[in-house]
Write a structure and sequence with these properties.
Structural class: alpha+beta
Number of helices: 5
Low-confidence stretches: none
Largest sheet: 4 strands, antiparallel
Distance between the termini: 59 Å
Number of strands: 7
Shape: elongated
Mean pLDDT: 91
């Protein structure tokens, strides 16, 4: 592999999460301006916190693969693993969710899910980069037809529509 490849969390998930955070924040502001009950404001403030954390984590997460190593970037941390050190590349599939584990020895491992865009390319890149004996048969089989996960995207867009409805209902009350 000559060039560096960067993979990010699918934007089809990140965009609705950003909209959901914005709509929830707008609803909080409207509730404050309308003098809504404190319990409603506290619930919205409590809802915004995990939504914002999930959005930031998803928006800034990326995996970079170059000729010698794979690096997983997450907010405030990164993990790097040299391909020459990888002793196993395994996958675990739970319905349409896939988790790949790159292991180097007993203590060093990196877990990558199929939440990344171009997951098939990511999986193929890892298979061709790690030592051939490190790749399990299950991983090679999975690479032939990697599953596409859309349930989280649907759920995020459903939440956006629901929050927009609640926001509109707040104006009509």
């Amino acid at each position: 592999m000559e060039q560096q490849k960067t993979f990010v969390i699918r934007r089809s998930f990140v965009v609705p999460m950003g909209l959901l955070v914005a709509l929830t924040l707008a609803l909080l502001v409207v509730c404050l301006l309308q003098g809504q009950p404190l319990a409603k404001v506290i619930i919205l403030a409590g809802l915004i916190t995990p939504l914002a954390i999930l959005f930031v984590e998803s928006a800034f997460r990326r995996v970079v693969i170059d000729a010698t190593e794979v690096t997983a970037f997450r907010p405030f941390r990164q993990r790097r693993m040299r391909f020459a050190d990888v002793t196993s590349l395994e996958t675990v599939r739970v319905r349409s969710r896939v988790f790949m584990t790159l292991a180097a020895g007993d203590d060093d491992f990196l877990i990558i899910s199929n939440s990344y865009g171009d997951f098939a390319v990511l999986l193929d890149s890892l298979i061709e980069s790690v030592p051939a004996g490190a790749v399990t048969d299950e991983t090679r089989q999975l690479a032939k037809q990697p599953p596409v996960r859309q349930a989280d995207v649907f759920t995020a867009w459903f939440a956006v529509v629901a929050m927009a409805y609640v926001l509109l209902a707040q104006f009509s009350s």
